[in-house]
Fold:
Amino acid sequence: MKVVPLRLQPGKDLRQALDAWMGEQAAQAGCVITAVGSLSVARVRFAGAAEPTVIRGDLEILSLSGTLSADGAHLHIAVADSEGAVIGGHLCAGSLVRTTAELVIGLLPEWLFSRELDPATGYAELAIKDRPER
Structure:
């Protein structure tokens, strides 16, 4: 595993920045090891919901986890508002960094992650393959 630190500036879209960054990497598989920071807007899709919920305010990132591939990420986030109430779910595009987002990403060069439609779930789910030797 190759470990890479990232810092996102205020105003960056957390989800889109991770997708774009992963698309620039030679590795085709990755994961979020840790993340801290803050958001001014969080777009979070709750379990079973068709559309994301928009949360605005001073939000602290408590947790961010998931898998990264060149054709998409699957990320879950937990944030706390200014009163300490915690909410979490599937991270969607439109979640904007407030002051910073400090991330540590693990790149997995020996693996190939992709998203493939799973007829059982109806979603593009993680497909895992060994990456051929170069």
